[in-house]
Structure formats: C-alpha cells, structure tokens
Amino acid sequence: xxxxxxxxxxxxxxxxxxxxxxxxxxxxxxxxxxxxxxxxxxxxxxxxxxxxxxxxxxxxxxxxxxxxxxxxxxxxxxxxxxxxxxxxxxxxxxxxxxxxxxxxxxxxxxxxxxxxxxxxxxxxxxxxxxxxxxxxxxxxxxxxxxxxxxxxxxxxxxxxxxxxxx
Length: 166
Prior knowledge:
Elements: E1 2-7, E2 10-15, H1 16-33, H2 37-47, H3 51-54, H4 72-90, H5 105-116, E3 140-141, E4 148-149, H6 158-161
Antiparallel strand pairs: 1-2, 3-4
Helix pairs in contact: 1-2, 1-4, 1-5, 4-5
C-alpha cells in the first residue's frame, strides 16, 4: 500500500516509508520559512500526511485540490513558497535532526519540484475543501523540535508521533 501526491499530468507515488521520509524532510523547511497565513495552511496540509496519526497508506494530496489563492499574485506567491521550501529541503536542511538517513528523499523532492514547477494553479473559488482553512492552519510547535503542528488538536509534531521519539 502506498500514497499518491498528484500534480497535473504527473504524480509522485510513494511507499509508506517513502511518504514518511518525504514529509520528514519537507516539514522542517516549511516550518522555518512560513511567514504568511497560506504558508501555515500548507504546513497543516503536510501535518495531515503523518501516517502515525492518519494511518498508513491513507494520505496524499493533489496540487489541484490546494487553494493556491484567488488572485494571480497570491497563487504565484503560494507556489513560490512551496518551491522555496522544496529547495531548502533539497539542501538537507535540518536532516541531521531526523535520527535516520532518509534514503531516496532527495529523489522524491526532485520529483515533487518537477511536478510543482510547471503546475499552473487555478482560481480556487471552486474548491469544496480538503485544503486546511485559515482557522485550521498549523501555528504551534514544540520547542524541542521547532516543527509546525496543529497543536493542541494533536499531541505533537511528526517527530513527537514517531514511536521512537519522546
């Protein structure tokens, strides 16, 4: 069983372990770059990919289901944030904090970047849900991990929910 992250004509199909590594390396970059309500909403979307909370093989999202913004300027800014976070993750930003070597994670990030770059976000007024709203954005983080989470709704960030983490 695996998970699919779609984007237009492309998709990133990952095993459960691959999904965990992909989110593990992307989330610290998103957490460190977030400075806008949309960024925190995207962080909340990523927290929903935590299989230790949501269940293995039950996560994934499609770029077409993300509310990128209602104006061309907002959509471009949102897409730029995702690309900047992906680039930061590709630089192995904070990977040493993961407690393991995320094999193949750079390949997943390159594939994700290749999906996002040509993607043309549409006006999101037609979307019926799936992308966290402003009230659902990830705002909290545990001081020891500095990773955005949807605390107090969940017990912690993805590092907290790992069986070997405290």
